[in-house]
Amino acid sequence: MGELKIKKKEIGSGRPLLCVPVMEERTKDVVREMRYLSESCADMIEWRVDAYGQYGDCNAVREVLERAAELFKDRIFLYTFRSRKQGGLAQASAEQLKDLYDLAAESGCVDLADFEYFEETHPHHRIRQLKKKGLRVVASHHDFERTPETEVLRMLLEQMCEGEADIVKLAVMPQNEEDVLRLLDVTVWFRRKYPDTPLITMSMGRLGSVSRLCGEIFGSCVTFGSHEKPSAPGQYQMDRLCGMLDMIHESNQ
User: So what's the pLDDT on residue 207?
Assistant: First the structure.
């Protein structure tokens, strides 16, 4: 698989990295959760800015980023604004999103920025702009209603890959066990066809929870677990998930 090295951690080979989201609304709670996670088993910490009550206040966002810079010396920092269309908690204007990305780039502490690929009119252009600002980009797409047909899943992944993002991410909701198997099959297909692009996939909810465990075998390089508040259905509690990932990795040696 393609590998991306950030803060001495390899994304794209071996045991999947464990990412834990921060879903708090108030500044003091965001910082408290960040501090806790900075000393936890999490490899990567995602700040879900759409959950933050002051996401429209540049000074407030800047303050949180300054605190994150102090805390995340050896943890990968993923910066995400998830729109309501993609299962998030808020909706930002194009100008607000531009300001949020600019703040991330200016901070110097954001390692990865999530980018909702199919919500943009010219995603290739926007990704190039973000990379010029010094951000590494995760091109993402989320379907909280269903799992599209196999050819559509492949098309979504290929289009995001062609956008030259550093990592490609796809999350879908299964309606049955076969949907989970198809998502895993497409994950293997992508890994073999595009070995230089790290991939994150997940099948959400109860049925899809197994997909959060087996990334090392099928080709997904990051999995998401929860501490206090999950960011999507089906996430395991982070300490339990960490132990299961370790166990699978040991048995795969």
Answer: 96
Determine contact, residues 225/235, Cβ cutoff 8 Å: yes
| Tokens found for residue 173 | 């909701």
pLDDT for residue 83: 96
pLDDT digits (tens, 9 = 90+) for 167-177: 999 999 999 99
Q: Which residues of the chain have pLDDT under 50?
A: none
Alpha carbon distance 168, 147 (integer Å): 17
Residue 227 designated active-site: no
Separation of first and last alpha carbons in the chain: 16
Q: Is 142 a catalytic residue?
A: yes
Half-sphere exposure of 47 (CA within 13 A, CB side): 36
Catalytic residue from among 141, 169, 227, 249: 169
**pTM value surpassing 0.85:** yes
Q: Decide: helix, strand or coil at residue 10.
A: strand
> Residue 198 carries which side chain, given as an amino acid letter?
P
**Sequence-ordered list of residues with C-beta below 8 angstroms from that of 197, at least 6 positions apart, any chain:** 2, 161, 165, 167, 168, 190
From the candidates 5, 28, 85, 142, give the one annotated as an active-site residue.
Answer: 142
